[in-house]
């Protein structure tokens, strides 16, 4: 019997598949840190805002506070873990020198980005999915447009996977990398309407909130689930999609040039 020879197309995508598999196995091997820890943290948020305040407060007519805050907590898990996966993995490759081995492999810049991005989106989706399952113990969501909600979650995950790659390239050390998460992403999430609708804010804080890019991700995701939001879903999706596309082009340019990857 004559053995079958793999097609050239298969060989061209084999390095990508190998890199994707490596990235997935990387966070699965330390699942207690990459998956369990953020799930426990989100569960504590759900307990505080769901079990204690969920039925006692209401910031949106027709919905309990738990129903209002759960979409934001789900998306927060997706965002944080998507960013953490790409940023930590690429930075460690730079720090340990393993990135040099990747750069000499026949992996194109789009394949490089896609492998890191898909692994990050998988981790973010797993955390977000489990947080949603746990949230059913505290409140029932109407899921007005489930497909749009999933689309918005994937867009948020994709966006922050690109941002994680860019942050890993520009970070000088571990402290710099953690600053992106602690002093940029976290404040923008909290000020983006996770725990309150920006419509209740006095001027000029309501208008300033529209300058927060994470507001559009959070409000768009909540709008798809509850059917109401501070802005239209189309606007939220367009703004978020534009930011995601910009970050993707930026990351592709940096990786294509090998900027700070060979040093």
UniProtKB/TrEMBL annotation:
Q: What membrane topology does the UniProt entry give?
A: Multi-pass membrane protein
Residues annotated as signal peptide: none
**Major site of localization recorded for this protein:** membrane
Looking at the record, the residues that make up the ABC transmembrane type-2 domain are: 29-258
Which residues span the membrane? 35-53, 65-84, 113-135, 147-171, 183-205, 233-255
* Protein origin, superkingdom: Bacteria
Keywords per UniProt:
Cell membrane, Membrane, Transmembrane, Transmembrane helix, Transport
PROSITE patterns from the entry?
Answer: ABC_TM2 (PS51012)
InterPro entries (alphabetical): ABC-2_transport_permease, ABC2_TM, ABC2_TM_bact-type, ABC_2_transport
Q: Which molecular-function annotations from GO does this UniProt entry contain?
A: ABC-type transporter activity
Per the record, its GO cellular-component terms are: ATP-binding cassette (ABC) transporter complex
Q: Where in the cell is it found?
A: Cell membrane; Membrane
Q: Which NCBIfam families match?
A: PRK15066.1
- Tell me which family the UniProt entry assigns to this protein: Belongs to the ABC-2 integral membrane protein family.
Descriptive protein name: Transport permease protein
- Provenance organism: Malonomonas rubra DSM 5091
């Amino acid at each position: 019997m004559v053995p079958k020879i793999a097609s050239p197309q298969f060989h061209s995508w084999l390095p990508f598949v190998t890199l994707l598999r490596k990235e997935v196995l990387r966070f699965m091997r330390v699942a207690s840190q990459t998956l369990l820890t953020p799930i426990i943290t989100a569960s504590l948020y759900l307990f505080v805002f769901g079990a204690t305040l969920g039925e006692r407060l209401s910031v949106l007519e027709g919905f309990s506070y738990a129903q209002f805050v759960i979409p934001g907590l789900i998306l927060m898990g997706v965002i944080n873990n998507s960013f953490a996966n790409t940023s930590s993995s690429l930075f460690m490759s730079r720090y340990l020198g393993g990135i040099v081995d990747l750069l000499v492999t026949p992996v194109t810049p789009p394949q490089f980005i896609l492998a890191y991005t898909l692994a990050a989106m998988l981790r973010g989706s797993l955390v977000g999915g489990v947080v949603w399952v746990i949230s059913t113990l505290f409140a029932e969501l109407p899921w007005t447009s489930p497909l749009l909600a999933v689309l918005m979650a994937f867009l948020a995950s994709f966006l922050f996977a690109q941002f994680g790659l860019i942050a890993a390239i520009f970070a000088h050390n571990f402290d710099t990398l953690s600053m992106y998460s602690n002093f940029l992403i976290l404040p923008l999430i909290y000020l983006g309407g996770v725990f309150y609708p920006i419509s209740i804010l006095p001027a000029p804080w309501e208008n300033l909130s529209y300058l927060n890019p994470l507001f559009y991700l959070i409000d768009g995701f909540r709008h798809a689930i509850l059917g109401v939001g501070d802005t239209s879903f189309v606007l939220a999706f367009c703004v978020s999609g534009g930011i995601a596309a910009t970050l993707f082009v930026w990351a592709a340019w940096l990786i294509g040039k090998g900027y700070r990857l060979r040093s």
